[in-house]
User: What shape does this take?
Amino acid sequence: MQQSSANNRLNRSLYYGIFLIALATLMFEILLTRIFSVTMGYHFAFMAVSIAMFGMTVGALVVYLKPEKFPSENINTILSKNAFRFSITTIASFLFHIFIPFMHGLSVTGVIVIAVNYTVICVPFVFSGICISLLLTRFPQFVNRLYASDLIGASIGCIVVVGALNFTGGPTSVFIAALMSGLGSYILAKEKQKLLTVYLIIIVLFTFVYF
Assistant: This one.
């Protein structure tokens, strides 16, 4: 009975974890289209979609090419750490983009600035791709429900971002997206109280620095 209860808790944590990570991923991707249109120009807005797809593909390739880095016996800890990194790099990449001025016009410096911006903003999606790839490949017995949770989380993220934009605006909504992936990290973690405390401290510090 106790073993069955533990398995049920594990299953729920996987479903909730992939739901929140997918939700945060779509939120951040859509927010970037809004942010890029303001900071860089409207014609750069949909580059956010390419950045998200590229970053998640890199994450999936890391999982495929380096399976020894993701042993099954520590999979929950690995998932939690990568979800946590996704949360932190979401905020860090956004702040980097905001504080590095965009340069209009064709020049070597301008191209380098754009390339560095895109590279940094790609990083959160790499961690998101690692999490989602691991969840969909390391638990084949639950893959149908995990994939359903992934799709539901992504679709709800598209809806939540609209409300967040209307209620708080683009920059603050990035922190909300980071909070969602942070909650996913917390749900997937084993040492939950310790991780949650560290996460909340970091979020408060980043928010204080930004505002």
